[in-house]
Amino acid sequence: MITAVDTNVLLDVFAGDPVFRARSLAALRECLADGPLVACEAVWAELYAAFETAAAADRALDAIPVALNPLGRAAAAAAGAAWRAYRRAGGSRERVIADFLVGAHAAHQADRLLTRDRGFHRLAFAGLEIVDPSVTSG
Asked: What CATH number does residue 10 fall under?
């Protein structure tokens, strides 16, 4: 089973979030036991932005086996369509296209998404299986 991983889960671990670190780490381990972990370019870019240097980000990413899995054309199209529908329905600009790229990537190129942003992704990508470490014991 392929699990796409969202930025918030990885940052919980890398930044040592006092509330979610242990749960996110446990969820990563559980998902990894079921198969590969992947993330799209948007997640990788957000991670690199969170570190002072690319070398520091590389060290962190090397510690967790999350493969860069480029967004395919169908997933990119789905992300654009979902974002457009969201905005037309009155959705705020708090949600940026990267959020939709992550969800569409998971829906098209993985079996599930590991994220703490479950409500948004469930609404935008009906049928996408969500694993939420904030409700998982760990």
From this structure: 3.40.50.1010
